[in-house]
Amino acid sequence: MPLDDWEHLSEESLVRYKVFDVVKARRRSPRTGADIGFFLVRTPDWVNVVAITADDQLILVRQYRHGTRQFSLEIPGGLIDPHERDPAAAAARELREETGFLAGELRPLGSMAPNPAIFTNRCHTYLATDCRMVGDLLQDPGEDIELVLVPVAEVDALIRQGAIDHALVLAAIAMWRSASIDG
Questions:
Q1: What is the pTM of this model?
Q2: What's the rounded mean pLDDT across residues 20-41?
Q3: What is the rounded (10 degree) CA torsion for 48, 162, 175, 93?
């Protein structure tokens, strides 16, 4: 039996912060008719970038993540700014700011729902190739980033060891690998 959409009954903004809103939403189940409450996080779309240098180094960043209270090894990425209409422009900007690198070529790999249970946004993933260093990192005040270059041949070992465990980074690497297989 096909599923039906849930009826949207109401939404109430609970908390507004500069990068997200927390919303209490009420929906009606099409199966049971029950009125059920949900919490949603509204945030702008995000980008992340699988960036590779001309000598086959994957460009990673290490930074402290307050949710896990640990350092995380990740690909560059972040919010699409309100004035940016094109996610590719945000991807190029984040790559430059977080790593000091510019891409020779930037192409989309796809987009994903970061956590469709509570987040309303998408994360757009790009592949940046022939990347070259052009300057220092341009970090936001809330960022403390360490640049890490890893030979592409060592990425799988880092994943197996748990050194790369950020879900969106793992998904981006899977998208990159899938695109490499497809051509």
A1: 0.94
A2: 97
A3: 10
Phi-psi region of 109 (alpha: psi -120 to 50; beta: other; left: phi over 0): alpha
- Domain housing 73: 46-182
CATH number of the domain where residue 142 is located: 3.90.79.10
Residue 74 in tokens: 């990740």
Question: What is the 3-class SS of 115-177, one letter each residue?
Answer: CCCCECCCEEEEEEEEEEECCCCCCCCCCCEEEEEEEHHHHHHHHHHCCCCCHHHHHHHHHHH
- Check whether residue 116 and residue 155 sit in a common domain: yes
Look at residue 2 and tell me if it is in a domain: no
Q: Find the angle CA(110)-CA(116)-CA(117) to the nearest 5 degrees.
A: 165
Q: Is residue 1 assigned to a domain?
A: no
